[in-house]
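---------- Forwarded message ----------

FYI, see the S9 family peptidase record below. Original note from H. follows.
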Amino acid sequence: MAVSRKPVFQNLPSPPAAEKKPVSDTRHGIARSDDYAWMRAENWQAMFKDPSLLEPELRRHLEAENAYMEAAMADTVALQKTLFAEMKGRIKEDDSSVPMKDGPFAYGTAYVTGGEQPRYFRIPRDADHRDEASRKLLLDGDKEGSGKDYFRLAGLDHTTDHRFGIWGYDDKGSEYFTLRIRDLESGEDLPDVIENTGGGGVWAPDGKSFFYTLQDENHRPSKVFHHIVGQPQSQDRLVYEEKDPGFFMGVGGSLLDDFIYIDVHDHETSEYRLLSTKDLMAEPMLVAERVEGIEYSMTEGGDVFYILTNDGGAKDFKIMEAPVEAPGKANWREVVAHQPGRLIISHMAFARHLVWLQRKDGLPQIVIRDRQSGEEHAISFAEEAYSLGLQGAAEYETDVIRFSYSSMTTPSQLFDYNMSTRERVLLKTQEVPSGHNPDDYVTRRVMAPAHDGELVPVSLLYRKDVALDGTAPCLLYGYGAYGITIPASFSTNALSLADRGFVYAIAHIRGGKDKGFAWYEDGKMEKKQNTFRDFIAAADHLVKESFTSYENIIAEGGSAGGMLMGAIANMAPEKFAGIIAAVPFVDVLNTMLDDTLPLTPPEWPEWGNPLESEEEYQWIAAYSPYDNVGAKPYPPILALSGLTDPRVTYWEPTKWIARLREKAPDAGPYLLKTNMAAGHGGKSGRFQRLEEIAFEYAFAIKVAGKM
């Protein structure tokens, strides 16, 4: 297919020329050479905690890449400012949440005009949250982050008696969080400083100690510690250590304050340990030992636990119950049966009701079950495609839960729902200060035929006045990994593209759970290439139905979705006008061969283990974007990375861009933007993040020839 692209990048300076320093590697008798392996800093672990330790040669190269990127995008500076102003204008700057009731108080967050970070506050339980005089400020994120290039809060968790709160922050972007303890009455922090944590803690009921996870030198949450307020971190007691580097670990609490949960899991296997808060010094009790491929999660229900699991062939999950005194697997009894095609995503329990979020026919539903009568009902919605968020409640003894609703045209709405009376109370509708008329836009769900006959859902947003004759530019977004479903939710940012005549599209490709658990299984391990082929099929269908044309499609994805971008660039470069790959996981084979990297062992169930299996090595080698770059007609590509990113390390996109320039120097151009003061999520402030989105959208608009 002949490639016809708009000549939008002209008179560029010469791009940075990366030095080649070949490193050979042989696995399973297969030899490879990596010319750019040197871009991985030898001191990467120390550098994540202190970016000033980056080796000078690497810093010079990344800065040269940033300079080249800025030159290529220089003509978009005014457009970026316009986009930023539009996006900012759609945000209520002094917005605040509707506080969640918990005991004598209700807790919420708020922003101030011009502020980047949230403020945490509380009010008396039945006070009017709109009355700012009733608010007691607990934590000011802008104040705490003042003067820092990067600052991200990890929330505020209060004690049962509401006297103290744990709060955490990351000021490097490396996701090593420091915890502090705040006296919520005086507003002062106690001397305790807990470093290198996963970002939060769980209080014991007496408010004198808490539990947290510690990140090891390879950025793995491998240990749970018990901290007693007033003691140094060095004296914290080790509660549990996970020896297998292939498993993640988290610690959580219950609404009834009766148990501490220790959750050990990878992407397909899980295991829980319980610590009764009646004896904090006891050994955690194993519920059901891990069995490969069996997942379960737990929530409290008074005298029982409710257990969500895929055990016994329940691919789309079922809910069991077990006595609190004997929660072992031998005592599990079915409460909600498995229904193929009805994926139960999460569950929670309250004194009189069991609640779960499920996905059926590609759409989310909230289902309520009366625990005494067994009667069930679902909360109904009318739109063709929409998104739900189930917040639940902070109290166990309640009939009222909270949920959010939105669609690609409908701003987010927050409801309280009485599970007994079925009364739905609208608490808040997302305000768009610059104005938004849903009737000006169309949201649709179309089905794209895949190579094997499966139908891939594609959610669309566009203005009613857009001509659907193939001339409209299109931003096509995809992810397709870890079973994560991309919701068809409202995005004020996407309106900036829709208002410029774009069709904004989300391809719900395999690798997510959009059509059930089987949809996930068909996009992982040996079936991973279904993910990439589904995305290309979505592009083909949008062209066939005249929503857009190949010369007008800009593809976008981040992290594992960035792998998707690298793969489709290699497989069908002629079908895209441009590609945006944010923190792209593109050096898949090298990363999965390196078990010292933070996420490698836990990721093997998702991609395969090329260290142990030649077959799995070959799966990954067949699609790994970095390893399959060739002399192809690549479109302009924008890659974005963060220097301290522990999830997708900065050297992956850096190496990828270098190899693209080497193998296909006359295509592209290839731009790399490295945030030298942030990690995986980019900048942390709400408006700083808008600047990054404005930059990405400016690239898309430039490539589409719509400046």
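H. also flagged this: The longest strand covers residues 189-203.
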